[in-house]
Amino acid sequence: MKKTTLTIAAQDADLRRIDELIRHGADINSLNHLGLTPLSCAAAYGHAETVEYLLANGADPNILDRDGLAPLHKAADGNDLLSCETLLKYGANVNQPTPSKTTPLMIAASGGYLDLLKLLIEVGQAKVNLTDIGGRTALMRAADRGRSEIVATLLKLGADLYSRDCDGRNATYFAETQNYTNILTIFKHFMQINPQPSF
């Protein structure tokens, strides 16, 4: 019979087995053969209770897997609000970039996860104007995906409409390219109240 590892137990949300393994000296922050920690597995599978249990027993919320992803990236990708909230409570770096400089906030913006976006900004104090490897902000990503509620929320929370990516494109460009008229209306209204500063 194959020995159950802590990462497998976390993936299966088997709290009894996790507790047993920890009591017998298993390293709660160890990486498996795929470069994943037990916490990373629990976050990836949306097991919020297991995430909480591992963190309460000393799991480090900021260990990156071999792909450079933190548990918060995985929980954000699955729109797992409860796991994200727990990870933030235990000190997860809300602005942790992936190798392509994608932050959890950018993941929420692209996915259209409004409640998660608000949690990351209002509770986690996520920086709204960070850029990925191509110079794209969360606002640009939301505009490119047609996420009008996300766009409106980001603007209210300080997103820079006039920021440009590495190719000189701003959020308006992405909305125009996709012909998202509702987002263009939001931008037009915003620009009337907040004209672009001239330098």
UniProtKB/TrEMBL annotation:
What processes in GO biological process is this protein linked to? protein K6-linked ubiquitination
Q: Does the keyword Lyase apply?
A: no
Q: Where are the ANK repeats?
A: 1-33, 34-66, 67-99, 100-124, 134-166
Q: Name one GO molecular function term.
A: ubiquitin-protein transferase activity
- What SUPFAM superfamilies does this protein's entry cite? Ankyrin repeat
Has UniProt tagged this entry with the keyword Repeat? Answer: yes
The superkingdom of the source organism is Bacteria
Provide this UniProt record's keywords sorted from A to Z.
ANK repeat, Repeat
PANTHER family per the record?
ANKYRIN REPEAT DOMAIN-CONTAINING PROTEIN 39-RELATED (PTHR24171), BRCA1-ASSOCIATED RING DOMAIN PROTEIN 1 (PTHR24171:SF8)
Q: What is this protein called?
A: Uncharacterized protein
Specify the species: Aquella oligotrophica
Highest lineage ranks of the organism?
Bacteria, Pseudomonadati, Pseudomonadota, Betaproteobacteria, Neisseriales
